[in-house]
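Q: What residues go here?
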């Protein structure tokens, strides 16, 4: 049963990480900068991999704090911990459902200076990308800046915006100890990097008209449903 539950938690975590990394902010800036600077496809995918590793590393480091807190709480409250964790996950799921109902999802937006914003309202009618306009005067595409500056900017932009949606997944795996934590970290790396590389490659192949904005538009509702599933899995583990 434990292995079955762990596999279910891992599958849910994979879904969270993949769809989070599929939103355009995780790959479209790389495509636009690469086109502006004339990068090869191989170099662009290499930069995506480098920035994605930073993204995953910071998320995992935050996950260490979540796991450590969970272990301490588990040792203190004993049998009540799964119910506390399930309650927190369910409350978080309801919060994301509320955000989806109130604003139509979470739009993650990176300004050219590297700042990250989450807007509650997404443009439902806008199918074209606004990135061309925002990156026009950015140092990332400036001819005066060398490639190292552009790579560093993209790296910092993505690294400093961890996958916050994956952190509750670490909480759901506390009962599996550190082996469970490392398993989930591998799942995070595979799913996030896989999605970023896949959508970058598709865009470089001229398929950037894909309606991936829907991933972003309905991300809050998707996360809400997945956190409710995780809450149920934590209770199942206790039983």
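A:
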């Amino acid at each position: 049963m434990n292995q079955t539950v762990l596999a279910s938690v891992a599958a849910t975590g994979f879904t969270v990480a993949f769809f989070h990394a599929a939103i355009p902010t995780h790959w479209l800036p790389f495509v636009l900068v690469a086109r502006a600077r004339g990068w090869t496809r191989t170099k662009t995918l290499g930069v995506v991999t480098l920035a994605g590793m930073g993204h995953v590393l910071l998320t995992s480091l935050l996950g260490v704090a979540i796991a450590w807190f969970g272990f301490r709480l588990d040792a203190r409250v004993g049998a009540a911990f799964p119910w506390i964790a399930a309650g927190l996950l369910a409350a978080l799921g309801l919060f994301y459902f509320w955000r989806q109902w109130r604003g139509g999802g979470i739009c993650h937006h990176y300004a050219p200076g590297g700042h990250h914003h989450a807007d509650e309202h997404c443009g439902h009618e806008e199918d074209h990308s606004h990135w061309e306009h925002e990156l026009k005067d950015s140092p990332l595409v400036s001819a005066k800046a060398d490639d190292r500056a552009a790579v560093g900017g993209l790296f910092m932009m993505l690294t400093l915006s961890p996958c916050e949606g994956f952190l509750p997944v670490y909480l759901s795996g506390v009962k599996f100890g550190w082996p469970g934590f490392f398993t989930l970290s591998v799942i995070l790396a595979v799913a996030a990097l896989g999605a970023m590389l896949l959508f970058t490659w598709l865009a470089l192949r001229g398929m950037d008209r894909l309606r991936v904005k829907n991933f972003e538009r309905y991300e809050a509702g998707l996360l809400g449903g997945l956190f409710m599933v995780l809450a149920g899995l934590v209770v199942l583990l206790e039983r």
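A: Context that may help when evaluating the design: The first strand starts at residue 107 and ends at 110. The chain has a mean pLDDT of 79.
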